[in-house]
Every structure is written in C-alpha cells, then in structure tokens.
Amino acid sequence: MYSKVFSGHPEHDSYYHTHQRKMARHEIDDAFHMRNRVLAAMFIFSGIGLAVVGWSGSRAYHALFPQQAVV
C-alpha cells in the first residue's frame, strides 16, 4: 500500500491527499466532540473542588472562632 502511495505517480498522490484531507477532517470532528466532554468534566471537578474548599474553610473558621453561647 505504501509503495503505491509514495510512488510519485500523480493519480496516487491525489488519492493520498484526498484521504489525508478526509482523515484530518475526521480527527478535527473527534477533537471537538472530546472537547465538550473534557469541558464538562472540568466543570464538574471544579464544582466538587470548590465545595470541598468551602466545607474545609467553614470547619477551619468554626474551629478558630467557636461561637459563644448567648445568655
């Protein structure tokens, strides 16, 4: 197969470039679909991370400044 693609004949060159374009277009489509999944995962993990930081900050604040009983 590679000997036909790289043989230097014009008909084989156009065949190779046509398929190369199709493969590149397919790779770009796959990258954009994966980008949406990666962004969604980043938002989910960022939300979880912010919740954990807020929870631990709240616990630290209450440990440093215990509330006084109101009489």
Structure notes:
This protein is mostly helical. It has helices at about 1-5, 10-65. The longest helix is centred in the middle third of the chain and has 55 residues, at about 10-65. The termini are far apart. The mean pLDDT is about 80.
Features of the shown structure:
71 residues; 2 helices; 0% strand
In a few lines, what is going on in this structure?
The protein has 71 residues and is an all-alpha fold.
Helical region count? 2
Rg estimate, integer Å: 29 Å
Question: Main beta sheet: strand number and arrangement?
Answer: none
Strand/helix succession: HH
**Kindly state the mean pLDDT as a whole number?**
82
What topology does this entry show?
Layout: H1 2-5, H2 10-64
